[in-house]
Amino acid sequence: MPENQGNTRLFLSFIMGTVIDSHFLGLTAIVTVGYQLLFFIVTALLKIDKVTDFAGSTNFIILAVLTLVVKGSWHFRQVVLSCLVVVWGLRLGLFLLLRILQWGEDRRFDEMRQNLGKLAVFWIFQAVWVWTVSLPVTVVNASNREPSFEAADIIGWIIWLIGFLIEATADQQKLQFKNAPENRGKWCNVGLWKYTRHPNYFGEVSTYGIPLLEASSDKKFGNVAGYATYKKTTSPLIPLPPQVYGNLPSWFKKIFLFELPLYNRNFPQEGQNW
């Protein structure tokens, strides 16, 4: 019996060390691919886009909680980081789900609903994005070390709080703007949206999703008076006063402020000279 127990322990150690691996990179990859694949199948069969953002947001929560529980170290830094991911993911996931249920559709996916290839590429990219962005928390939760509490931890948590508040505020401002009848058919340029075209993504410090949103907005408002001026004077990501951003040279915007050419590929031809 002791020999059998020893063999069992060796087998489990082999599984943990090679299949799951010591840093949970394999485990999180398998879970992420499986989770995104499930929602991709639902989206493809039903031709809906109501679960896309929800699937991305909640995937972060699953990976954070899974790696924390499987490792079982429960170090202070691991618990705090995992809780921050859970709070962020729940807020964003529920907000996006309720918003899409209210609005009925997501214009970013207009061209993908009937194109299985484009839809698959998007979901593959989303899986890679979730797994990659989750790597810091995954590695921390997989660690056996419990380093001493440092000032860098507090700085990191303050940055998270600022980003969280910016993202939540921007989302609420746009929701209120869109829900007002007098703003029907207009682009959001109030509050934080005066200073950046995507303040919610600035809160995440992420450019993921911006190309789709830019293409959708350009298609919808490209020929509306004033929209070209808004794009010319409003930063795509980093908040800046319109008077400042509008007078910066184009090379500076491209290199330092993420004003990438692909953000204007769907803009009406006559408006691209700015």
From TrEMBL:
<feature type="transmembrane region" description="Helical">
    <location>
        <begin position="76"/>
        <end position="98"/>
    </location>
</feature>
<dbReference type="InterPro" id="IPR010721">
    <property type="entry name" value="UstE-like"/>
</dbReference>
<feature type="transmembrane region" description="Helical">
    <location>
        <begin position="154"/>
        <end position="170"/>
    </location>
</feature>
<keyword id="KW-0812">Transmembrane</keyword>
<dbReference type="GO" id="GO:0016020">
    <property type="term" value="C:membrane"/>
</dbReference>
<keyword id="KW-0472">Membrane</keyword>
<feature type="transmembrane region" description="Helical">
    <location>
        <begin position="24"/>
        <end position="46"/>
    </location>
</feature>
<dbReference type="Pfam" id="PF06966">
    <property type="entry name" value="DUF1295"/>
</dbReference>
<keyword id="KW-1133">Transmembrane helix</keyword>
<feature type="transmembrane region" description="Helical">
    <location>
        <begin position="119"/>
        <end position="142"/>
    </location>
</feature>
<protein>
    <recommendedName>
        <fullName>Steroid 5-alpha reductase C-terminal domain-containing protein</fullName>
    </recommendedName>
</protein>
